[in-house]
Specification:
Keywords: Signal. Residues 230-256 are annotated as: Disordered. This is Lysine-specific metallo-endopeptidase domain-containing protein. The longest helix has 17 residues, at 264-280. The radius of gyration is 18 Å and the shape is globular. The two termini are 29 Å apart. Helix 2 packs across helix 5 (204-214). The protein has helices spanning 59-73, 76-90, 93-98, 108-120, 204-214, 242-249, 264-280; strands spanning 10-12, 50-52, 137-139, 158-165, 170-175. The strands form two sheets. A three-stranded antiparallel β-sheet has the order 1-4-5, with helices on one face. The protein is an alpha+beta fold and 302 residues long. It binds 2-acetamido-2-deoxy-beta-D-glucopyranose (NAG). 2-acetamido-2-deoxy-beta-D-glucopyranose is lined by residues 55, 57-58.
């Protein structure tokens, strides 16, 4: 594994520039760790994530809780992570657009398959999603303000982040306002897509999968062996969208295959690409879903 250039574990829209970071380390009383998934609007499904600081009398909070519930309990998280897993197992086109084939040192496809398998879990034993997801906490507070050096949602373009909050010592996810505007993967109009994967197919589940990748219980508990962060392209901008995650691997662009397995957005876009491909392939051609997108994304610097 080569030396890596990992920035903070935040998902930031690639084209925006980070502004000055405002830290406001106001200390509040230490909260107890949340109890396992007490979904406040309806019953929780198996391994649904846990929630902090949502106020169920506030309409916006209720809508957000419903989105968080639906993305797991409606099966979309398992669907996209499973298709990513299948693509890695078969080493077919979506996988190969973002990750290397195995070499003498690393069995990359198996590593990627194992990482996504932790999230997806097994439908026979794990309820709606992998067991580990039930340990994840989503905090409705923009708590990065408690974490020195971390970017909170006031940094333009920030979609979400995963950090350990120094106030309660919990590793948690926060979704910024921008992320809630992304819809369900199944709502994407297949006819509107380009012949290559693009942000036109983006979904809330892709952002959620990106953040799940960052948890310290994921990368270190797989053959990857380390936290899955946010890597940068050759131009020092975050490798964060389809052209950039493809560009990390592409021999004609960054040609940096080793870092792909520790870049969260590579997993997220590969999985969405695979799911979208099987969802959008024309009816009679379902065995050929991996070739739905006939082109790779254009070079990131074009
Ligand atoms: C929840 O929101 C309501 C309505 O805005 C407010 O009156 C109440 O104090 C809030 N509860 C908490 C615990 O913040």
């Amino acid at each position: 594994m080569s030396l890596l250039n990992i920035i903070s574990l935040a998902l930031v829209v690639a084209l925006t520039r980070a502004g000055p970071i405002l830290n406001n380390p106001s200390r509040v009383l230490r909260r107890d760790a949340p109890a396992p998934s007490a979904y406040p609007l309806d019953s929780a499904c198996g391994n649904e994530w846990q929630y902090l600081n949502f106020n169920t009398t506030v309409a916006t909070d209720r809508v957000h809780l419903q989105t968080l519930h639906d993305v797991i309990c409606g099966g979309e998280m398992r669907a996209i992570s499973s298709y990513g897993q299948i693509s890695a197992q078969n080493v077919n086109t979506p996988y190969k657009r973002y990750f290397p084939e195995s070499d003498d040192e690393d069995d990359y496809p198996t590593n990627v398959k194992d990482v996504l398998g932790l999230i997806a879990g097994a439908s026979s034993t794990d309820g709606a999603i992998g067991t580990v997801v039930g340990t994840f906490v989503v905090d409705n507070l923009d708590f990065a303000a408690n974490v020195p050096g971390a970017s909170d949602c006031t940094v333009e373009g920030t979609l979400a982040y995963t950090l350990e909050d120094q106030v309660d010592d919990l590793e948690k996810i926060h979704f910024c306002d921008l992320s809630w505007t992304r819809g369900e993967a199944s709502d994407v109009d297949c006819a509107s897509l380009d012949p290559f994967p693009s942000t036109k197919m983006d979904s809330f589940s892709r952002i959620a999968l990106h953040e799940m990748m960052h948890y310290s219980s994921i990368g270190p508990n797989t053959p990857v062996g380390e936290t899955i962060g946010d890597c940068k392209n050759g131009d020092s901008e975050p490798a964060n969208d389809p052209p950039r995650v493809h560009g990390l691997l592409d021999p004609n662009q960054d040609d940096n295959p080793a870092v792909t397995e520790i870049n969260a957005d590579s997993y997220a876009w590969m999985s969405l690409d695979a799911w979208m491909s099987q969802n959008c392939i024309a009816g009679s051609d379902t065995n050929n879903w991996a070739s739905f997108f006939t082109q790779n994304p254009p070079p990131y610097n074009e």
